[in-house]
Structure formats: C-alpha cells, structure tokens
C-alpha cells in the first residue's frame, strides 16, 4: 500500500472525510446546546373544558428546561399528564422556538367509591383523580377492576333501556358477583358470570318478564335476587315472608 500512490490518496481522502464528520458532529452538538435556540412559545391545543390554565402553569413552573433541541419531549409529556383532567398529551417541536402540545381530556363516566375519595372513571374504564360536584353513577369493585366494571355498566344499562329504568350503581364483589341499583331504589342481585349463563343473561331475562309481572305490581320493590335458573326472589316492603308467618291458634 505504501508503494501505491493511488491507494495512499484514497486512504488520505477517507481519513479527511472521517475527521470532517467527527468535527461536524461535535460542532452540531455544541450548536444545539447554545442558548441561541431558546424556547419562546408553548402552544396548547385540544377540546378543553375542564383543564385549568393555572394548573398547567403550576405543573410546568421551574420544570421546563433546555433549548429547542435539548428539551426532553417525553419529560414534558409526563409533566402535562400530571395535570388534573389530562388523560394524554402529545408534544412536538415546531421550528424555530415553539413546543406544541395536544391534550386529550378525561371524559368522565362514573364515580368510583365514596365521593370524598375524589376517584373517577373515564369512558375508557380508566381511573383518575379529580374533584367533580356532579350526580354520577357510582361504581365499586376490587382493586384494578375499573375497566371490567365500566364494561359491565355499559352492557347492563343498554339491557335496561326498554324498561326506561336508569342504572345508578354497579358493584362487583371480591368473588366477582354483580349487584345493580336502579334510580327507583330497586336492587338487582345478578350474581357471578357462569359458563352456562352470565349475569347479563339473567338481567336480560328479567327485562323480558318485567312488563307482565313486576311491572304490574302496585307496590314498590326493594330487592330482586336473579341468581336462580327458573325464576327470581323479590322483597316487597310491607309484605311478610311466608316462612316467617306464625300460625294463629284459636282461644280455648
């Protein structure tokens, strides 16, 4: 090689190119870190009704660091997603000095547990924390069952539509048994989802027979137990259960 001028020239040219690339990369790295590229504009988009500007400022205060090139977009996204009512944030750079953030709000479906806990569930079945003074359906269940309870609520509510009854509470027990409470105060005990018939199947059967049975009763109903294959048991205020009745003996 050392005796071949052509190969020496090729090697020298390759070395010059390599050095130029290294110097260029180093120069670019230093360039993007210069304060000559500060962020000046933060643009926020989205159909926002509950996210408050003051909460955004509070979340970003003193935490938004770096230049146009060095700002960690993922870290900015995380900061936005700590703001109450923000479900998801998408962050991008816009030349020469702007960050654009698109926010998706939570759309609330129900309250989870007690009102004072400030826990809500969105329409995706995801739990989040926020204060909301509104009359909402109430869900409860084992930890991590929010999505399952939200799915059940949707199915049960659609099943009750023909009766014009509104579903106000959905409870899932530790044994995964379902209980519903309607706006009339009526409690429906559906039980667990079984291989042969699910809780929704039992509710559907109840909806089918309701107009010609319980719907004709003039009394208010408290509780209906649907965990039976061929019928149901109900509790009516003011009516004494037959097995509680005492025979009346005639006086001597």
Describe this protein's structure.
With 252 residues, the protein is of the alpha/beta class. The C terminus is likely disordered. The chain is elongated and about 80 Å long. The longest helix is centred in the first third of the chain and has 28 residues. Helix 4 runs parallel beside helix 5. The protein is built from 5 helices and 12 strands. It has a 9-stranded mixed β-sheet, covered by helices on one side. Strands 1-3-2 form a 3-stranded mixed β-sheet.
What does the overall shape look like? elongated
Overall strand count: 12
Q: Strand content of the residues, in percent?
A: 15-25%
SS summary, helix count: 5
Q: What is the ordering of alpha helices and beta strands?
A: HEHHEEEEEEHEEEHEE
**Side-by-side strand order of the widest sheet:** 6-5-4-7-8-9-10-11-12
Task: List descriptors.
alpha/beta, nine-stranded mixed beta sheet, disordered C terminus
Summarize the structure.
By secondary structure, the protein is an alpha/beta fold. Helix content is 28%, strand content 24%. Helix 4 packs parallel to helix 5.
